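Morning run. Coffee first, then this:
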Amino acid sequence: MNVKHHVLDMQLLNQLAPNALTRDDIEIFEGEDGKLPSTFVPGRNLIFLSFAAVLASQVKAKHIITGVCETDFSGYPDCRDSFIKSLNVTINLSMDKQFVIHTPLMWLNKAETWKFADDLNVLDYVREKTLTCYEGVIGDGCGECPACKLRKRGLDKYLNTQEGAEI
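And here it is:
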C-alpha cells in the first residue's frame, strides 16, 4: 500500500491540559468512583480529528479513520460514538466539505480488536509497532500503566481463543 504519512506536532496539549499523559511529573492512576483517570486530556480527540480534517482537506481526502472505542474505553467522553457522529457533522459544516469519520473499533472489545488485526494479517505489526503505553514504550509497553494492562488482557484473551475459548 502506498500511503503517505503525516506526523503533526501535538506538544501544545501539554500547555492546554496538564495531565499524566502529557506530563512526567503527574502520577498515572485509573479513574475510580466515576472519575476520569489522570491520563484524560480534555478535548483530545476533538483536537486530533479537527487537525486530521484540516490535513485531509489539503490532501483531498474524504475519509478519516480513528481507533476510538466505546466498548473498552476508560470513561473518556471523546471516545463515545455520539461524540464522533456529532463531530463528523460539525467538521463537515465548519469546512463546507463532506468527510466521513470511520470508527472500525467502536464496538469491539480489546480481544476482538486483536482478532480484527489478525484477520487483516497485521497482528505482528500491531503487536510490535504500535503505541498504547502511557510511558511511550512501543509494542508490549511498560506492562504497568492502565493502557498496557488493558491491551495485555485483550491480547491474552484473544490468544486463549486460539486454543478454543470464546471472545
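Strands lie at 63-65, 100-102. Good start to the day.
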